[in-house]
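stage 2 :: seqdesign
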């Protein structure tokens, strides 16, 4: 089967594992962050702030941060993004959010974590492009990634709901932090063994980051 052939690729297996674990960690983290906002502060406003801190940076900064994937080592950027995600939950493990300063630091970490999403989502697709030469192989690899998304999110929701219902909030934070750190280790290993087969840009052509971003927006708004 074509799926089995794709999974025989060592680099893709590691990337696919990291994607599954990332989806799982994201699912658990989303629920646990809402849980702490509700139980700690019992305020819809705080819940809105937490969700906004996670989503707005992704929406606002996504077009700009995503462009970094073209300029720098994608795997290293994705490793860094997972370390940032882990820092949110490492902070929660050791901090009870008892003061305004603590809460401010927590929100700042959430904003940083939210801004990492374009690097992870865009990076996954770009690495798949680098791993496989043919469009057919890329389509199968992306299909596996898409299928894993819903499965892991459902499982993550069930798992986090069960744990939080038992009142083990800190253990959930530790679990998510460990997952993100483990994912960062996987990316670190990929960076050591993987040399991209494809170069999607001309090294001899100096295209500035600003012009590249303008070109992307022009394509988005003018290309039907």
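stage 2 :: out
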């Amino acid at each position: 089967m074509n799926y089995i052939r794709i999974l025989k690729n060592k680099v893709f297996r590691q990337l696919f594992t990291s994607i599954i674990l990332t989806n799982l960690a994201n699912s658990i983290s989303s629920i646990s962050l809402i849980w702490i906002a509700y139980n700690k502060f019992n305020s819809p406003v705080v819940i809105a702030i937490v969700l906004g801190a996670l989503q707005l940076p992704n929406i606002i900064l996504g077009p700009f941060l995503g462009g970094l994937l073209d300029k720098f080592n994608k795997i290293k950027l994705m490793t860094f993004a997972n370390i940032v995600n882990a820092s949110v939950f490492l902070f929660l493990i050791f901090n009870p959010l008892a003061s305004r300063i603590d809460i401010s630091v927590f929100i700042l970490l959430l904003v940083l974590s939210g801004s990492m999403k374009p690097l992870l989502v865009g990076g996954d697709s770009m690495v798949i492009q680098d791993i496989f030469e043919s469009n057919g192989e890329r389509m199968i690899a992306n299909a596996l990634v898409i299928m894993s998304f819903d499965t892991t999110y459902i499982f993550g929701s069930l798992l986090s709901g069960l744990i939080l219902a038992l009142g083990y909030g800190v253990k959930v934070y530790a679990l998510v932090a460990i997952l993100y750190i483990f994912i960062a280790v996987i990316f670190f290993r990929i960076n050591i063994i993987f040399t991209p087969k494809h170069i999607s840009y001309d090294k001899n052509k100096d295209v500035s980051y600003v012009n590249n971003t303008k070109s992307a927006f022009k394509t988005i708004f003018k290309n039907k």
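stage 3 :: structure notes
- Residues 10-41 form the longest helix (32 residues).
- The radius of gyration is 19 Å.
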